[in-house]
């Protein structure tokens, strides 16, 4: 039996009466639970209490909910928590805002931090608003910064206070001229100009040509199979993976590299893959792609990228090192499982399009 204490984050509504919260914490203490953090948010008709609770051995989430109900309260939501939930919220918000002011590519990540969201996607146009018991979507709009931000959190609805915080962040960024991240321009170490941008449906022919220009060895390292061309039916999934993200590197009218993120079954992880045309390898393209994908993963709440490599292939590990992302490697099912932390010492790389004069580190 696992006796490791578990940490949970609860949101509860209690009667507006003296001592209600104290009685809940006493019940939790009787179950060897320790309240590590508490915050109070005003909501229409009262307040919402958020607690971070370290449960005693054998205490289940249902036991915590029962303790709240026993004192006449209602548990609005409960989810697993970790040390990130113990960071002082105003401090975390200020740091996120400062980071977004310095680096517009982190706007989505900053919004996720301020809102406590599972994921944030910046949209060029207003996304649909959807709200259900299991899948909560809301919209925070600021036309000066972006068409809208589609935010998602499954364990509890967003409060108006949280949405106001998100809007305040976007207003702050707009006041300082920070715009939605645009396609990123960069120069290789030999002076060739590239653009990193999201893949789209119209890229099928360009991606097919990319594969046709790659050597058999490069394709084998990517797909672990001997193929010369990619079946046409694969192209759509490469560019529009279900729930995933694709970034392409383009030089003039050619796509010369492709990077992809696919969510894994564990919420903190996503599978990453890179394909760089032979003639563009060793020139920083893979480093830039991996950095962009790590940023997208952070904005989606992912803390780990997982790549699968042949035992003799070390290119992904070297690329991650040059991107400033820590890695660990283990052998699994005849392949190397490369685990890449999305947080790390970020490489000073190219910024938005107007910063194209900066060079990326070669890889």
From TrEMBL:
Ranges of residues in domain N-acetyltransferase? 194-343
Species this protein is from: Saccharothrix carnea
Query: What is the protein name for this chain?
Result: Acetyltransferase (GNAT) family protein
Q: Which Gene3D superfamilies match?
A: 3.40.630.30
Q: Which residues cross the membrane?
A: none
Q: Which domain of life is it from?
A: Bacteria
Any keyword GTP-binding?
Answer: no
Ordered alphabetically, the record's keywords are:
Acyltransferase, Transferase
Does NADP show up as a keyword for this record? no
Which molecular function GO terms apply here?
A: acyltransferase activity, transferring groups other than amino-acyl groups
ACT domain residues: 9-88
């Amino acid at each position: 039996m696992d006796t490791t204490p578990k940490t949970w984050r609860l949101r509860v509504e209690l009667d507006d009466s003296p001592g209600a919260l104290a009685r809940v914490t006493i019940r939790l203490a009787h179950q060897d639970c320790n309240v590590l953090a508490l915050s109070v948010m005003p909501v229409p008709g009262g307040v919402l209490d958020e607690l971070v609770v370290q449960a005693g051995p054998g205490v289940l989430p249902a036991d915590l909910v029962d303790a709240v109900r026993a004192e006449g309260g209602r548990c609005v939501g409960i989810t697993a928590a970790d040390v990130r939930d113990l960071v002082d919220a105003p401090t975390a918000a200020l740091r996120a805002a400062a980071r977004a002011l310095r680096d517009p590519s982190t706007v989505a990540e900053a919004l996720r931090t301020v809102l406590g969201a599972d994921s944030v996607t910046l949209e060029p146009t207003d996304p649909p608003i959807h709200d259900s018991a299991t899948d909560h979507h809301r919209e925070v709009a600021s036309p000066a910064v972006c068409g809208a931000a589609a935010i998602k959190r499954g364990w509890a609805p967003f409060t108006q206070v949280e949405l106001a915080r998100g809007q305040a962040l976007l207003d702050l960024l707009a006041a300082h001229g920070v715009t939605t991240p645009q396609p990123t321009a960069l120069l290789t170490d030999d002076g060739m100009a590239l653009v990193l941008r999201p893949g789209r449906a119209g890229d099928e022919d360009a991606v097919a040509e990319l594969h046709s220009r790659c050597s058999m060895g490069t394709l084998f390292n990517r797909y672990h199979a001997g193929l010369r061309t990619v079946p046409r039916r694969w192209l759509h999934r490469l560019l529009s993976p279900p729930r995933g993200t694709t970034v392409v590197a383009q030089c003039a009218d050619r796509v010369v590299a492709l990077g992809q993120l696919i969510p894994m079954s564990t919420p903190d992880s996503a599978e990453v893959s890179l394909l760089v045309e032979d003639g563009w390898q060793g020139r920083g393209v893979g480093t830039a792609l991996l950095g962009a994908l790590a940023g997208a993963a952070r904005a989606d709440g992912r803390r780990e990228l997982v790549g699968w490599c042949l035992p003799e292939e070390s290119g992904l590990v070297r690329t991650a090192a040059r991107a400033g992302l820590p890695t660990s490697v283990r052998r699994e099912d005849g392949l190397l499982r490369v685990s890449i932390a999305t947080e790390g010492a970020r490489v000073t790389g190219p910024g938005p399009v107007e910063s194209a004069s900066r060079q990326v580190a070669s890889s």
